[in-house]
Amino acid sequence: MTTVRPIAQDRLPALLRAMPKAELHMHIEGSLEPELIFALAQRNAVSLPYASVEELRRAYAFTNLQSFLDIYYAGASVLLKEQDFYDMAWAYLERAAADNVIHCEMFFDPQTHTARGVDVKVVIDGLHRACVDAKSKLGVSAALILCFLRHLSEQEAFETLEQALPYRDKFIGIGLDSSEVGHPPEKFAKVFARCRELGFHLVAHAGEEGPPAYVWSALDVLKVERIDHGVQSSKDAALMKRLAQDKIPLTVCPLSNLKLCVFPDLSNHNLGALLDAGLVATVNSDDPAYFGGYMNENFTQTFAATGLSAQQAWQLAANSFNGSFIDASAKKAYVDRLNATFETFA
Ligand code: ADE
Ligand code: ZN
């Protein structure tokens, strides 16, 4: 661990914004801003159950994960063509670059689109083209992780995998998202075993609203390399020990947790406790268009509410690179850039 030289408290927000960082937990469909939803609806002649951007935004008052997912899936209904997927991903990547995100591993939900008759090739081609352009035009490395929707069956996940395999060179990993409670990781044991044989990186949402038992089974049954969210792990001391010992990254999403009422207030968030317990926690935006903030808002609001330090800022950014699926030399190069930024603030 690098020991960070002290910096004045009033310079911390600028440091949080300036430091290079990786985003490891964001759903690209959750980056669709209301303005883009309406523009795409018009372009594709899709009718929406909201009269205006303002009315849609007013509906973003969530009480739990499901209340959000209902609106999130409705928003994604405007995506039909390859260019739509490109435009969505490009808008996110430009926004991420402005927050000094220099590496991103983004989730996509093919079943949300194939259920509406959109070919998985259209989805993957559009998103992948934006990732390629991000490297050359923004200097951001970006990769895709295909997520299965856990409220659907394992059989449907297998069918989705088959449909996507012809494009396997365009995504690096497999994840599990959507409604958590009642859909434990072990429901997808067989399909994750197959994805593992195929050589994909594996991640899963677990312990967002669901119990620590779901984090255990994501680790022991699905054999995932990272846990998405995982904040409920702090209820289980043995699990906290396991996560620390095995250096399993947790992709924590503070503003998401606030907006979906996982924590009543950001000041109650357990990010600092996870770091204090030695866990490889990271900060991420989840669905930034819906939860009121991209990466830098997640950092600055969480630090303001919880009083985390510059040392913890460095740790979170270093964790984001070390917890990513890039190779060891790229990790080192990114952490060197992180250290250089901290030097300019010392
Ligand atoms: N899909 C998009 N955002 C999600 C979240 N926070 N949890 C589970 N599934 C999701
Ligand atoms: Zn998520």
From TrEMBL:
InterPro entries: A_deaminase_dom, ADE, Ado/ade_deaminase, Metal_Hydrolase. The keyword Cell inner membrane does not apply. Residues 20-339 form the Adenosine deaminase domain. This is Adenine deaminase. Keywords: Hydrolase, Metal-binding, Nucleotide metabolism, Zinc. The active site is at E208. The record marks H229 as: Important for catalytic activity. It comes from Variovorax rhizosphaerae. Zn(2+) binds at H25, H27, H205, D286. It comes from the Bacteria. Its EC number is 3.5.4.2. Its cofactor is Zn(2+). Belongs to the metallo-dependent hydrolases superfamily. Adenosine and AMP deaminases family. Adenine deaminase type 2 subfamily. GO terms for molecular function: hydrolase activity. The keyword Hydrolase applies. It catalyses: adenine + H2O + H(+) = hypoxanthine + NH4(+).
